[in-house]
Amino acid sequence: MDSHNDTRQGRSRPQRGPDRLGKSRFSLAQIDPALRNLVAKTQHTTLAVWAADCAERVIPYFEEAHPQDGRPRQAVEACRAWVRTGVFKMADIRGASLASHAAAREVGEENAARSAARAAGQAVATAHVPAHSLAAASYALQAIHRASDTSGADAAVAEERHWQYRHLLELSRAHDTQEERQ
Question: What is the third-level CATH fold of 31-181?
Fold first, then answer.
């Protein structure tokens, strides 16, 4: 498991505050309640678009470090294909997600590239379970945190978190407007 710090497996969650290099710590478990509430009210395919958009913003961290490995990009494309076509094949969705997570594991060290690949794996998994959209957004935030310098990490994460909320709100409103027209 990545730095998910799952207490069910005997690991404790990291404390907020600086690490040994002075950079703040990032917790995947810290999800804004307003965002969680908006996700709960949002249509499934809209969440998939949002998750793919969140992952796509950080995929360059992976692609710059591993230009020959297309698995995270393919996962996002599989998510977008499901939204476009409505065709759900569990084997394809699961395969794309697992392949992206395998790419993350192969990165080895915990860095922005690894988090970006995890974001893509969670994005495609949104086709199966809408709640995976929150994990995609969280891993995207983690990628930004890991890619940022010590002094700018918190501000970069806050800016991305703000974008994520605004973007989901815009997508939700667009979906609602489209449904009203039909």
Answer: YP_001051499.1 fold like (1.20.1590)
